[in-house]
Amino acid sequence: MPAPITDEQHRLDREALLxxxxxxxxxxxxQAVGMDLIRTxxxxxxxxxxxxxxxxxxxxxxxxxxxxxxxxxxxxxxxEEVPDPRERVLAVFDWLAAWFAEPGFRGCAWIxxxxxxxTSSEAVLTEVRTHKQAFHDQIADWTLAAGLPAxxxxxxxxxxAIVTAGITGDPAPARHARAAVAMLLGGA
Length: 188
Prior knowledge:
single chain, mainly alpha, 0% strand
């Protein structure tokens, strides 16, 4: 009889599964990745994978939730290091430029998921909307502290830069959006 799986092994296996699924989904697309490929990449048997996540949709939502915490956490850690409120808003675009230049950058994971499953999966649509609202709220905190009356212009420039960089493979949209936000800040 095999030894029971410890809580630590359970946690490690779940993280390995999420790592494998996130990498594959982001690189190849959610619908292009089958559970057999996830099994191979994670090193876990399908039975164990389905104990963690009874359906692929559940795995997709878990990947997006975890990615949201890491992505917004990394953005906040970078931006909050900047003492001046106006420079914090501009730092958002510096962080985006660095992200866009990373090897394997394929745009926004939530936009990508929405494009693939947003109309057919209420759970994925909810997770995409939750992430976008949380990103909006982050931007709103920084823009209001900088004296801008509304977050939407900055948010739309950030979202547009993300989508454009994802399509073109060029980090320049972050620089262009940063320049536009600098003009907005100059008029505030």
